[in-house]
Specification:
The structure holds 3 protein chains of 3 kinds. Chain A folds into 2 domains: 108 residues, no CATH class; 148 residues, no CATH class. In chain A, a hairpin with a 4-residue loop joins strand 1 and strand 2. In chain A, strands 1-2 form a two-stranded antiparallel ribbon. In chain A, helix 3 runs antiparallel to helix 9, helix 4 runs antiparallel to helix 5 and helix 6 packs antiparallel against helix 7. Helix content of chain A is 71%, strand content 3%. By secondary structure, chain A is mainly alpha-helical. Chain B folds into 2 domains: 235 residues, Arp2/3 complex 21 kDa subunit ARPC3 (Orthogonal Bundle), CATH 1.10.1760; 95 residues, no CATH class. Chain B is mainly alpha-helical. Chain B is globular and about 60 Å long. A 6-stranded mixed beta sheet of chain C has the order 6-7-8-3-9-10, sandwiched between helices. Chain C has a 4-stranded antiparallel beta sheet with strand order 2-1-4-5, with helices on one face. In chain C, strands 11-12 form a two-stranded antiparallel ribbon. In chain C, helix 5 packs parallel to helix 7. Classes of the chains: A mainly alpha, B mainly alpha, C alpha/beta. At the A-B interface, helix 1, helix 2, helix 4, helix 5 and helix 7 of A face helix 1, helix 2, strand 1, helix 3 and helix 7 of B.
């Protein structure tokens, strides 16, 4: 694709960073179920029980008002992760550091802004940290981390369509489940198409692009993606019709509850209940 | 502005879930009635598209990049109800896979971005575009403003949700249990980023895409009611067509920048509070630190720029009683100066690029 | 021989642009037909009309004697009956792979037609095995190669054991090995009671997959004959934009003749 006789000198770092972002989106999160096949704790349970359990515990995290309660729940989350053969290192990379970044940024000013008895003063800057501020930040960060841990462990241990089917049995409307499944499916296609467009542009460009050229390129990529999306959706609809779709969604579920599922469900309920009661 | 778990109290989350659920319910009902479920693949693919758009770096004038949500385009193409579903689905997937936004706060995020965002975008677009020609420039401006206003509306609602937390949910010693910033900090803090970077990114994407669709795929622009066999046709755009889009995008930048330059009008409403802030508070080191921290750890200027000072005293107290409480705060005043500054910067960039293009040779492209 | 399709004088437009004009066609059960034509000649449109996804603005289409009109397809009874018997394989496999795993994709058709669960699972596994893709059972579609995707798409229609197979460019975008696999499969249908209509522009596979060839140009049928007749008619093929004229020279002598790649230059000796 390169013009004969010239080397492509592309200092279009904008394209590179966009491509990297797209690639990251693809590989990092969406294809997540890397622990799904390991013989761990969560993997043994019916997906419905997993989803309900994680939901209960996440709600407990948010309801709990006491520091000690949230710490305990964090320990529960980490234990479940370890028991389900999820490596703590990958958890740290995926969740703990990232959430710390997000939440830390938002929470940090609260250290200084929350009124109360100062416990720590930065000399020369006239800034003090109050006890209340410290407590608030700790609560915020820990809550966010714990909730994110629960969710991530679920997603790492469970194939996406099992999560969807579990949600269906919790009476999520079938249209919504279908849309979630199809969206997940087509994100890959979209990313690939966008990648190709950016790559082909990269190899055709000599020198840097100006701001408005980059803008045009981005919006044109977005525009072409949109046109393709709509065309694709139309074709998919025809394919669905062709195979008998008439408006109702039918899903094949063959989940079966076993004794261990009931035990696990009870354990989840009790843990969440305890945390909520203790932390009220 | 995806709100993570733990920032909103359980009752806030529950309330917003209920509000969102009614939005979702309304959308699903309409899918069944109006669009006869051929919308299911349409919404799914649109949600996938929106997901990718959120990952694209949108280059902004001045050299920065921003990220758009795509709610503007979604509302224009799918209508508000379809957009609610598409954006909600994208948010759900982001929450589960990226941890971008919490699970308990999914209701809140959907309410802010999917519901408020979609309706505001649709309303603004329809109001400004009116019955103008599908290929008119007015549509592009309408799209840009729809994107800009809707993102800021969403951010405002999110900021209010944040801001009321410490008021309502704290323990005995006054420690905020959830989001710790009160309204007069939360609102400016949220709005600064969205009135500037994110809002402009959304405006760029919305306008750019409508402009593209005007030349490449008019059927889509008409809205999904007309999507059916044979009504979608991709016409390959000629490479030279960009020159048509360029003037309308230029005009767009001018419009947005001039809007921002007019922010001193807001100083009118702030009235005497603006003056108080600039004199007393800037001299108080404690307050200075506070201001500095909410302003991204940059120290505030040691004195208000002379021009602004004059303006402030000039316009002191025309409407002090009318402004809402949060407007009369120091942080809001800082927000206004940020907008003014960015607007000024954008206008300067535009002028520079117009002058510069007359002197520079265009980059060679294959 | 029972009639499969009877088309009388149909027309169809895409946003004002005519895609089919006054087309008539009679297809008997068990026929294997190749539909030739350049892009835009109306092949895909015709297949979709045969699959009752589009309805002509003029003329009539009948399947086994029953007219295919929109209202009839909206009735559950007939729709169940029709969708089981007529299957369309789209050109772009991504269109046809919208389920989370291969197993669910193949199970989609039977699910929509209300098959019983045990019967369904057994039949799906059988079909996967016969297409040699059992090992892909739990694979998501984004982890499949082009050839694998095509086989899954084929499996997802063959699972219903349809009487009529409509194939839109089945070998396009496939590598040579996958192409020959698909052609082998299509050859298995020779002599069965399956009616097969394949749209393609790859002339070299036509002899293997059909006994009757129709040539489309600008929305009308311009030729209808055996593969031997049609493929040897260079003028016709040129006119329908199915081959290109090729010029080459040997020491001062210039030859110009239509050809397509894949066929040996028997009429021209160096």
């Amino acid at each position: 694709m390169e013009a004969s006789g010239t080397t492509v000198v592309s200092r279009a770092s904008f394209i590179e960073s966009t491509l990297r972002g797209l690639a990251r989106g693809m590989s990092k999160a969406l294809v997540s179920e890397h622990a799904a096949t390991r013989p761990g704790l969560l993997q043994q349970l019916d997906p419905r029980v997993r989803v309900i359990g994680v939901l209960l515990l996440t709600v407990a995290v948010v309801v709990c008002r006491r520091f000690e309660g949230i710490v305990s729940l964090m320990m529960v989350a980490t234990s479940i992760a370890v028991a389900s053969r999820v490596s703590l290192a990958s958890l740290a990379k995926r969740v703990w550091l990232v959430t710390l970044g997000f939440t830390g940024l938002i929470a940090l000013p609260a250290l200084f802004l929350t009124p109360g008895e100062p416990v720590f003063a930065l000399q020369g800057l006239h800034i003090s940290i109050s006890a209340q501020g410290a407590r608030t930040v700790a609560l915020l960060v820990l809550r966010a981390e714990t909730a994110a841990t629960f969710t991530t462990v679920l997603v790492l241990c469970t194939p996406w369509n099992h999560i969807l089917k579990a949600l269906r049995s919790l009476h999520l409307p079938p249209e919504v489940v279908t849309m979630l499944a199809m969206t997940h499916r087509y994100v890959f296609l979209m990313i690939e198409t966008a990648n190709q467009m950016f790559e082909s542009r990269q190899s055709r460009t000599i020198g840097t692009l100006s701001g408005s050229e980059r803008r045009k390129m981005t919006t044109r990529t977005a525009g072409v993606l949109l046109s393709k999306s709509i065309e694709l959706s139309h074709e998919v609809y025809l394919a669905m019709l062709s195979r008998g779709y008439r408006g109702e969604i039918h899903l094949l579920t063959d989940f079966r509850l076993r004794p261990r599922d009931y035990m696990a469900l009870t354990a989840f309920l009790m843990t969440a209940g305890l945390a909520m009661w203790v932390g009220r | 502005m995806h709100i993570p778990d733990g920032y909103l109290s359980p009752s806030t989350c529950a309330t917003l879930y209920v509000l969102s659920a009614s939005g979702w319910y309304g959308s699903l009902k309409r899918i069944k009635r109006v669009f006869a479920s051929r919308t299911i693949p349409l919404i799914s693919v649109f949600a996938a598209f929106s997901f990718v758009v959120m990952m694209l770096n949108v280059p902004l004038p001045g050299g920065t990049t921003g990220h758009a949500v795509g709610v503007g385009v979604a509302a224009i193409v799918l209508g508000p109800w379809g957009a609610i579903l598409a954006i909600s689905i994208t948010l759900a997937i982001q929450a589960l896979f990226f941890g971008d936004g919490g699970i308990t706060t999914l209701g809140a995020n959907c309410f802010n971005m999917a519901i408020v965002g979609s309706f505001v975008a649709y309303g603004v677009y329809r109001w400004i575009a009116g019955k103008s020609e599908l290929i008119s420039r007015r549509r592009i401006v309408a799209a840009a403003l729809a994107g800009y206003v809707s993102i800021n509306a969403a951010a405002l609602v999110a900021a209010i949700e944040f801001g009321i937390q410490p008021l309502l949910f704290h323990d005995a010693n006054g420690t905020p249990l959830y989001a710790p910033y009160s309204l007069h900090v939360a609102i400016p803090a949220m709005m600064i980023g969205h009135l500037t970077i994110a809002g402009i990114a959304e405006a760029v994407i919305s306008a750019g895409m409508v402009s593209y669709l005007q030349t490449a795929d008019l059927g889509v622009l008409r809205g999904i009611k007309s999507v059916g066999p044979g009504s979608v046709q991709i016409v390959s755009g000629a490479p030279g067509e960009s020159s048509k889009a360029e003037p309308s995008q230029r005009r767009l930048w001018w419009t947005v920048a001039l809007l921002m330059l007019c922010t001193p009008v807001g100083i009118l409403a702030a009235g005497s509070a603006w003056g108080e802030w600039s004199s007393a508070d800037l001299k108080n080191p404690h307050k200075r630190a506070q201001i500095g921290v909410v302003s991204g750890n940059q120290a505030p200027p040691s004195s208000v720029p002379a021009g602004l000072q004059k303006l402030a005293t000039l316009w002191t107290a025309p409407f002090p009683g009318y402004a809402p409480r949060f407007v009369r705060s120091q942080a809001f005043g800082y927000l206004l100066s940020a907008m003014f500054g960015v607007g000024f910067f954008v206008v300067t960039s535009l002028i520079t690029s117009v002058v510069g293009s007359k002197w520079k040779r265009p980059e060679r492209q294959l | 021989m029972a009639s499969a399709f009877k088309i009388e004088n149909i027309s169809f437009d895409y946003e004002g642009i005519p895609a089919l004009r006054g087309l008539s066609l009679h297809v008997e059960q068990g026929e294997r037909i190749a539909l030739l034509g350049a892009n835009g000649s109306g092949k895909s449109t015709l297949l979709r009309i045969l699959d009752a996804l589009y309805f002509p603005s003029a003329g009539s289409v009948a399947f086994q004697g029953t007219p295919l009109i929109e209202e009839r397809l909206q009735r559950n009874e007939f729709s169940l009956h029709f969708r089981r018997r007529v299957a369309l394989v789209f050109q772009n496999p991504d269109v046809q792979l919208f389920n989370p795993t291969v197993f669910e994709e193949v199970a989609y058709g039977p699910l929509q037609l209300h098959w019983k669960k045990e019967e369904l699972i057994q039949r799906v596994d059988e079909t996967l095995a016969s297409m040699g893709i059992s090992h892909l059972r739990d694979r998501p579609p984004y982890r499949l190669s082009g050839g694998e995707k095509k086989r899954v798409a084929l499996a997802s229609v063959l699972v219903l054991d349809p009487e009529v197979l409509l194939l839109d460019e089945p070998t396009a975008t496939l590598d040579p090995k996958s192409q020959s696999q698909v052609v082998d499969l299509m050859q298995e249908w020779k002599g069965t009671s399956k009616t097969v209509i394949t749209a393609t522009h790859q002339l070299e596979i036509v002899e293997d997959i059909a006994e009757r060839v129709l040539v489309l140009e600008a929305g009308v049928v311009i030729a209808d004959g055996t593969p031997a007749d049609i493929l040897s008619n260079s003028d016709l093929l040129l006119r329908a934009n199915l081959v290109h004229a090729h010029r080459h020279s040997h020491g001062g002598v210039v030859h110009s003749h239509p050809h397509f790649h894949g066929r040996p230059h028997s009429e021209h000796e160096p």
